[in-house]
Structures are given as C-alpha cells and as structure tokens.
Amino acid sequence: MQEYFKMGVITSPHGIRGEVNVYPLTDNPNHFTEIKKCYLKKKDGYEEVTISGCKFFKGMVILGFDEIIDRNSAELLRKTEIYVDRENADPLNDGEYYMADIIGLEIYYIDTEAEKDPECFDPVNTVLLGKIKDYLDTPAHPVIIAEDTSGNQRLIPAIHEFVKKVDLENGKVYVRLIKGM
Q: How far is CA 81 from its chain centroid?
C-alpha cells in the first residue's frame, strides 16, 4: 500500500516570509488546515516539514513552514510536490478507498448477466482484463487506467456504475463495462 499521498504542488513563493502558493491536488483542500506536518518530495526522498500557517486565496492554498523562513528558501521549492503520510491522510468512510492503493491491482470484467447473480465475483463469472496502471483525476470523477496483457489501455470511470467491487485484501477490482469500453 502507498505510504504517502500527494496533496499538492508548490507553484511559487508568497510574500517575503517563506510562505508558498500550493496548487491543491486533493478533494478536500481544507485538510491542509487539519494537519501539522507534511512531506516535501526531494530527489533523495521525503523531507518532513511542519506547517506553521494555512490560508486560501483564489483556489490556491498558501502554506507557511517552520523550516522555511525567507523568500529565497521558498523560491527553491517551486514545482515541489507536497505529500501527507497515511496516518494524517483524510479519513475514509466505509466502502471508500484511496485511489493510490488500487494501482497495480488486477482488474476483472463482470458479465452484465452474471452481475445479477449474488456470486458474480466468483472466478467463473469474471474475466481478467489486466492490471490498474494509474488513474486520472478529472473534474467529474477519477478515471482508472487499466492495461491488458497486450499493453492496450482502457479508461474506466471510477464510479459505482462501473466499479462494482474493490477487494484490497485480495488485490482485485471488479468492473462492469459497456459497449465501446
């Protein structure tokens, strides 16, 4: 499972006291106000920083860090990705999962007729499509990028109408496809 989740990307310094403008990559930008520490992704790993302040302006998050105290230091952080660890990630409700956790899982197709059967997740009723390679965050909903054994990719909306079951424990995702997918 993924240890860190991307929360945003630093776009530029903000002011002269080391604050930075952050483009949020999370469904809940307010979560920045609830966490005390985050991680900056560097070439050699993740650097833990302590958030000293958070405010919002025109769709951007403005963050201050205890470790960054001037504009010159903040300038060096342009295009740096900000992550949060699993412990401080936005909590999940029942039946929810982090999109990052499904990358690499096997993805199976369920026949529409078999879907009416309570045992539709049985291997007899499913066909292996391939593995989940990545996902896209779109304004409407996330989209799963699945790759079959030939290297062909399919885009599958990550909504209940298509994603029928996510079994993290067994590393499987079951989907229903429509004509043209």
A: 13
